[in-house]
Amino acid sequence: SNSTNEAFNSTIAVLLDTGNLVVRHKSNSSHVVWQSFDDMTDTWLPAPGMFTVEMDPNGSKQYIILWNSSMVYWDTGNWTGSSFPNMPELSRANTYPNTPYTYQFVDNDQETYFTYNVTDDRILSRHVIGVSGQTQSSVWVEAAQAWVVYFSQPKANCDVYGFCGAYSKCSGSALSSSCSCLKGFSERDPNSWNLGDPTAGCRRNVQLQCGSKGLEKEKQDRFYTINSVKLPDKAYTSIEGTSNQNCQSACLNNCSCTAYSYNGTCSLWYAELLNLQDTIDGSLDNIHIRVAASELPDSRTKKRWIAGVAVGGVATLGCAVIALYFLLRRRRRINSMNLGKGSLISFKYNDLQFLTKNFSEILGVGAFGSVFKGVLPDATIMAVKKLEGLRQGEKQFRAEVSTIGTIQHVNLIQLLGFCSEGTKRLLVYEYMPNGSLDHHLFRSSTAPLSWSTRYQIATGVARGLTYLHEECRDCIIHCDIKPENILLGESLVPKVADFGLAKLLGRDFSRVLTSMRGTIGYLAPEWISGEAITTKADVFSYGMMLFEIISGKRNNMHTGTSTYTFFPMWVVRKLVEGDVQTLIDSELVTDVDLRELERVCMVACWCVQDSESSRPTMGEIVQILEGLVRVEMPPVPRYLQVLAEGVKPSEVSNLS
Ligand SMILES: *[C@@H]1O[C@H](CO)[C@@H](O)[C@H](O)[C@H]1NC(C)=O
Ligand SMILES: *[C@@H]1O[C@H](CO)[C@@H](O)[C@H](O)[C@H]1NC(C)=O
Ligand SMILES: *[C@@H]1O[C@H](CO)[C@@H](O)[C@H](O)[C@H]1NC(C)=O
Ligand SMILES: *[C@@H]1O[C@H](CO)[C@@H](O)[C@H](O)[C@H]1NC(C)=O
């Protein structure tokens, strides 16, 4: 800023790999006029926005994340000397292989700051907080030509304050989530919404009538109920000792009341509703949302509609019946198609809209889009996946889909049909009543899986992958093996989901990879190093998943008494010490078969070997798990050593 015009003319600005912006002389690179590192600020890269990261202004040794400069929704916890408690991924315990990071927290009477150094300059990494409201660390993955997020906090979008904006609901799992406007509301800023920034939220389609006095009942505002939600922040009023009916009237009689909830206590909301969240865990809270009368169909209209469907033979009954007619016709076609196995049904978008009740019941959100429940006229339930971000033409899409459709195996999800209309691409799958494996492994609300079930799941998944890798006409690399993509059918038979989709997306692996954010553990080292990806990348992810099947916990979620333990490394140690019994999930009681346990541990350790050629094939894994082939003690993978905390070189050599 003090530089003269002359100096300005003879200088250039360079952004170095270190992130330092340097203004220096054109001809003399060591003559630095100004550099950004001399004027560090308290945020990573300051920019205006709803979300900010800052040092706790109250002086504690932690960073906080704020919404609209006022509401703290996440903190790192106080610096322990080696890490921040709420971000174990960024401690030495859990970094990418061969990316030595160093951390330092400086705190004296002059200054307080935290440094984070990547000492290997071949690794490109960056750290941002963007419109998602999450802080995210990414590395550049050469193979995918994309930035891959390997760390984000808060883990779930839904935990970001105001992420979905007003009158909008957040759903999905920690790893991927989505926002949707409440019934009776539409996106306030559809453009930003489509660009992935829903923070503007939703607005009413029809203004409230307000007041009830002197209005005919038909014109009064109405309420509809959303079940199983995490309630919005700040119930402004709570009234004790009233009835549900009085609670509703209290809301109706106040023009600014937007919703109420009644559980014995009456809670009223008087402002825009923020932070409504679907709870998959079955919370019993429900909320009644106030909308104008015209937004809710009169109960009489509804009855007429139901009556219409019931006498569906009559020809004059409107769209619903016509749709039903086509569906019945389609069902006949489904029956005839089942005779020639493997043929796929080509659905009309309108039909899928009807069968899924306009995509109202969400089953999950994955890397490729959201999945909705649909019911065929014969009561068969199906899972309809709306694909997002596909850039393929129709012809290529149909070709890929028909390849996936020919794949039939008891451990692979069956594709039933698809829809390709304009830019819309949907896939229709068989429905799995027991949900995905992560539910059963990591949620305390479900009963823990027995050992024999875990073993059956490990073996089943291996069989399914063997089929994909070795027995299909074209070998298919799944690219995204993790518990979220293992669905459980009747008797908890595992079925691998989402195979073939990485190929469907062509070279666009980045979407697959970004779905792994927060759980860095499943990525094989070759994804980072830029080597070619083979089926052995799936073997690696499978191995990491085996550790989770054994422990019943996320690999990166183990917290010991004082320090953080990286479970896979611990397994390797116990295996070498011959002490496999201590490995087992404490929830498992008596039914552990120690020989099977040892086998699974051995397989897992072989799967996560550094070099692809040391890892077994999926076919070999099946044989080992079936007890047909014996395995030797695996060497300790270097990758794990890097991941594991506190393993000194001397200990490592003792292990191997
Ligand atoms: C800076 O460079 C421009 C273009 O090269 C020239 O026109 C201008 O006179 C220079 N200004 C000074 C102060 O040297
Ligand atoms: C380049 O700049 C440095 C620092 O200002 C100075 O010490 C050095 O003599 C300069 N070199 C030349 C060739 O001008
Ligand atoms: C953010 O804070 C400012 C100042 O406190 C306030 O005027 C504004 O309405 C807030 N924005 C939202 C979306 O609440
Ligand atoms: C009812 O809801 C209020 C407000 O959310 C809560 O504080 C209270 O514990 C709930 N009571 C019961 C019985 O669930």
TrEMBL record:
Membrane topology category: Single-pass type I membrane protein
Cell compartments where the protein resides: Cell membrane
Enzyme class (EC, first level): transferase
Transmembrane spans: 305-328
Alphabetized InterPro entries for the sequence: Bulb-type_lectin_dom, Bulb-type_lectin_dom_sf, Kinase-like_dom_sf, Pan_app, Prot_kinase_dom, Protein_kinase_ATP_BS, S_locus_glycoprot_dom, Ser/Thr_kinase_AS
Domain Apple: 210-292
GO cellular component: plasma membrane
PANTHER family: OS07G0415500 PROTEIN, RECEPTOR-LIKE SERINE_THREONINE-PROTEIN KINASE
Protein name (Swiss-Prot/TrEMBL): non-specific serine/threonine protein kinase
